[in-house]
Design brief:
With 995 residues, this protein is an alpha/beta fold. Helices cover 47% and strands 12% of the residues. It has a six-stranded parallel β-sheet with strand order 3-2-4-5-1-6. The protein has a six-stranded parallel β-sheet with strand order 7-18-17-8-16-9. It starts with 9 loop residues before the first strand and ends with a strand. This is Double-strand break repair protein AddB.
């Protein structure tokens, strides 16, 4: 196949050429006229499984021939001639053992990291050990590194790496070590007997140590060759020499962020010059003029003087270079996805193959969702992360149950998960019970789901055998999960899987429901089997450690479904852009931090230590990403896309896109015109996508909704209200209409929080218990305070499930206890509590209406009469003007007491009406009962009768937000009244309803 040569053989394919097509065409040219078996004697090493599959697909298209052996550079040990190699340890088992080592280090040095981060640290440490094996770094050399100028953290990390990598045990022997040993055995075999048949390394850039050594060895074989993808032959000799110098001169930093640096480093190791890289096939690039433009834009810095010298000659070819370039600069990722989807739709209609190339998986999913509008399903090479699939989320949510109480919000999420109770005939009844339980729990404000909560729910309604069985099934599973303690990883996995299968099966069912079905379920099965196999190496885990481990482990796996994808549309990762070419290539997510990605932080070795140890630098990944970018830009038509803003901040354009636009701007009017044309084509896509989005959205009414004042028939208007609703009737009548006419009640939050309303309820419960148990406030102050706080702690513990909140609220109550006890002692001396949280009512005069009340307390006074008292927590008592106009609750309670509306009290004249501030007793005050000879309770009752009489007139509407106390007031029914389409200055519109 190759002429004899004493120099290494390096070949290249042009930028913008389909690498598989070029490789095959070069093989055909060199094997032309050879016997048929010559094809079968060729061995080709490729760099990725996808590349191998793509090459096999291309060979399968014909003509009929013997297939060459196609192997992976990362799987040299699969060669049957290399028997007797020590096998590699399981990657997961290695990380689990490293996790135990990291945990022991954290125990000794707690400032290193939280224990929950042990598995993630073990994963990064495993990758570091693999890299050391791949790069051939001798563990003994780490001991010679000078860390005197580094912090103690790096010295500690280096010590641990030296210990782990230097031991003789095979426990940490990974695939990189196996591949390195396989290469050594292969090179020894070739040294003894040089292969006569062709051996080719194709598609790799030599960025990893073992692969680079293989490429060097193959290039020197009598019939060996290396085919490099996307070598820039447009780059001047001086620039190549600069890259070669940076690769060989230890006194200057290597320019690894340049897309052609890896080729220069390979040339320097082989003792070759750029002119020694020959063309593999007679294949022209798609756009030579654009390749020259991009080559100039990406030259190593400083480049300004080179742009001035070499840029003007390119102006004549700018129309050809940029005429098929489009630049999208969208306002947000959502707008970017819409414009990209439209570009793909136009390409499909034109019959052109299209690939979206991006490292941003979120953007890729947004584009996939946008394409669904036209039923276009792209061939996504990445698949879906397992932890985002239904089985993955279910396994993570069930792992979160172990050893901890279940708050209401995650409980409802788990109960509504599509895999919960997915056994035959179970899903419908389960969802019905879940819906009923959610409505009850949110009305009641239940903070957690446990057996006590389920029993309270059952007690609140007519129970059936099926409902009881469902509650018992759920309570039993939750109790079993909550009792989980620290145990071995194998035992924890078994308990977790048992729990997940029981939840998936449903009440009284065996099996696992739909948990392990279809592609996502099968992927979850394989993942858990892998974890179960490696579990004996994992040691013991507690609840939080296991949750972190399972979440991180499932995030590494992927689910590949088999939808009927469109044959012309694909989504690729950046590495696939090196070796495959389509008609239209869309390079998306071109922002700093995305493409190129921000270099990952290595918690074990910093950049200086890596450089001194001879390991890979972070710039290597930037250089590889730059090469991917340069290759993809060689397509016939290219769309460059970025969003100006991310979800929370402005973005910075990718450095390569920035260089390209700056170069065009500096090329005078021709360059500026070319750039404007690129942006204009992108702006057209954005305008069309925005117009399509507006057209697809539900049209809004041309006029805003009126401020509603619904007027229902007199027969459906409320005939009874509690005094606490009277203020609402005055301030926001629409809320009374929605609550009592439409019978709509506000649901509580899915995740109850310790807010002011809950604190008020708890403190009221404390005082209620004190009064019901006849707590004596008159003893020695210290003893009374201690007994009172003990009682309060008991009540708070029964109402508040959050330990930190319990301590906080009890501490705040303790600070106010001395004043509160003195105040209560005076009240006990003056009278006896008779009505404690009991309901009373009286009918209004001349109106068919009942007003009811449930006062905090009413005391019968020793001097005669009664005292109506109301507890306040966080808020100050209302002012006299507020009481007169709006907050009539306390005086109306006094009027009901005077009318004999409370059973057990009788008709008692009010002698005192007052507020007791529990948070700050100094704010406690009494309301005057008489002003200018007017007895206020009676007057309030008459005023209320007049108010109710007006609302029993069918022409009177219940106006929304009639007199809110604050402009920031948020009513429970604002969404129903469409507040926002009108404001508080709009005139109400009476709307007859229900007629």
């Amino acid at each position: 196949m190759f002429d004899p040569s004493d120099r290494p053989r390096l070949f290249s394919t042009p930028i913008g050429a389909d690498f598989s097509e070029a490789l095959l065409r070069g093989l055909e040219a060199r094997l032309d006229g050879a016997p048929p078996e010559a094809w079968g004697r060729v061995t080709i090493y490729v760099n990725t499984t996808r590349m191998r599959r793509h090459l096999l697909d291309r060979l399968a298209q014909g003509p009929a021939r013997l297939l060459p052996r196609i192997l992976l550079v990362t799987d040299l040990a699969s060669d049957p001639r290399l028997a007797g190699l020590k096998p590699a340890a399981s990657s997961l088992g290695q990380r689990l053992q490293l996790r135990q080592a990291v945990l022991r280090l954290i125990e000794l040095q707690p400032d290193l990291a939280p224990p929950a981060a042990a598995f993630d640290l073990a994963t990064s440490l495993s990758a570091l050990l693999e890299e050391m094996d791949d790069e051939g770094v001798n563990p003994a050399s780490l001991a010679t590194l000078d860390v005197a100028e580094h912090s103690a953290h790096w010295a500690r990390s280096l010590s641990m790496i030296s210990i782990l990598s230097g031991q003789d045990s095979d426990a940490f022997r990974g695939n990189a070590a196996l591949n390195r040993d396989a290469l050594a055995a292969l090179l020894a075999l070739w040294h003894e007997t040089s292969p006569r048949d062709p051996v080719i390394v194709a598609g790799s850039t030599g960025s990893r140590g073992t692969t680079r050594l293989l490429m060097e060895a193959v290039s020197r074989l009598p019939q060996g060759a290396v085919v490099l993808p996307g070598v820039d032959h447009e780059m001047p000799e001086a620039v190549w020499q600069n890259l070669l110098a940076s690769a060989t001169n230890p006194k200057r930093p290597p320019e690894e962020d340049h897309p052609q640096y890896r080729f220069a480093a390979l040339l320097s190791r082989l003792g070759l010059e750029p002119r020694d890289i020959h063309h593999w096939a007679e294949l022209l690039p798609a756009t030579p003029s654009r390749n020259r433009l991009v080559s100039l834009a990406l030259r190593p810095a400083p480049v300004t003087d080179q742009w001035r010298r070499d840029g003007p000659p390119l102006t004549e070819t700018l129309p050809a270079a940029t005429g098929s370039l489009t630049l999208i600069e969208a306002q947000s990722p959502r707008h970017e996805a819409g414009a990209i989807a439209l570009a793909i739709r136009e390409a499909v209609e034109a019959g052109k193959s299209t690939a979206l190339v991006t490292p941003d998986r979120t953007l890729a999913r947004q584009v996939t969702a946008a394409l669904a509008r036209w039923s276009i399903v792209p061939d996504d090479s990445a698949g879906l992360p397992l932890h985002q699939s239904a089985p993955g989320r279910f396994l993570i949510e069930t792992a979160a149950l172990l050893g901890r109480p279940l708050d209401l919000a995650p409980a409802l999420s788990l109960l509504k998960h599509p895999l919960t109770a997915s056994g035959p005939g179970q899903r419908g009844p389960h969802l019905l019970n879940t819906s009923e339980f959610e409505t009850w729990a949110r009305h009641r404000g239940a903070p957690r789901l446990d057996r006590a909560t389920l029993e309270a729910w059952l007690a609140s309604r007519t129970t059936s055998a099926a409902r009881q069985a469902w509650a018992e099934w759920l309570a039993t599973l939750l109790e079993r999960a909550a009792g989980a303690v620290t145990e071995t990883l194998a035992a924890r996995i078994a308990a977790h899987v048992t729990l997940a299968e029981a939840l998936a099966a449903g009440p009284g069912q065996i099996g696992s429901g739909a948990l392990w079905l279809e592609e996502p379920g099968q992927a979850a099965t394989q993942a858990m089997a892998e974890l179960r196999e490696a579990a004996p190496l994992g040691g013991e885990v507690n609840n939080s450690h296991y949750l972190t481990l399972i979440r991180s482990f499932l995030a590494e796996k992927e689910v590949r479904t088999a939808p009927v994808s469109h044959p012309l549309v694909a989504i690729w990762g950046t590495i696939e852009a090196r070796t495959r070419i389509v008609d239209i290539c869309i390079l998306a997510g071109l922002n700093e931090g995305t493409w190129p990605a921000t270099p990952a932080q290595d918690p074990w070795m910093n950049r200086a230590m890596r450089h001194e140890a001879g390991m890979l630098l972070p710039e290597r990944r930037v250089g590889l990403a730059a090469h991917d970018f340069q290759q993809a830009l060689g397509a016939a038509e290219v769309v460059l896309s970025r969003s100006v803003r991310s979800a929370d901040a402005e973005t910075v354009p990718s450095r390569w896109l920035n260089r390209l636009t700056n170069l065009l701007t500096g090329l005078g009017p021709q360059g500026a015109s070319a750039l404007d044309a690129m942006k204009a084509r992108g702006a057209r896509l954005q305008r069309l996508a925005d117009a399509l989005a507006r057209h697809s959205a539900r049209p809004l009414p041309s006029l805003p909704a009126p401020r509603p004042s619904p007027a229902p028939p007199e027969g459906v208007r409320p005939r009874k209200l509690f005094v606490t609703a009277i203020s609402t009737l005055i301030r926001d009548p629409y809320a009374i209409y929605a609550r009592h006419v439409l019978k709509l009640r506000r649901l509580g939050p899915r995740a109850p929080e310790p807010d002011a309303a809950m604190r008020g309820t708890v403190l009221h419960a404390v005082m209620e218990r004190c009064l019901l148990e006849r707590f004596d406030f008159t003893g020695p102050p210290d003893e009374v305070a201690q007994a009172f706080l003990s009682l309060a702690a008991d009540v708070i513990a029964s109402h508040v499930p959050w330990p930190a909140t319990r301590r906080l609220w009890l501490g705040r109550l303790a600070s106010a206890t001395p004043d509160l006890l003195r105040h209560e002692a005076r009240l006990q001396a003056e009278g006896t509590p008779v009505i404690i949280e009991k309901t009373g009512s009286v009918p209004l005069q001349h109106v068919d209406f009942i007003v009811a009340a449930k006062p905090d307390r009413i005391d019968r006074l020793a001097t005669g009469g009664c005292a109506v008292l109301d507890y306040k927590t966080n808020t100050k008592p209302p002012s006299e003007k507020e009481v007169e106009a709006f907050d009539k609750q306390l005086l109306l309670e006094a009027a009901i007491a005077e009318a004999g509306g409370f059973s057990g009290l009788g008709a008692e004249r009010a002698a005192r009406v007052g507020y007791i501030s529990l948070g700050n007793p100094a704010n406690s005050r009494d309301e005057p009962l008489e002003i200018d000879g007017l007895w206020r309770p009676h007057a309030m009752l008459l005023d209320l009768a007049n108010l109710i009489r007006s609302y029993q007139n069918e022409s009177k509407g219940y106006t929304a937000r009639r007199a809110p106390q604050h402009l920031s007031y948020a009513g429970d029914y604002d969404h129903l009244s469409r507040y926002g389409e009108w404001d508080d200055t709009a005139r109400p519109e009476t709307i007859p309803v229900g007629r």
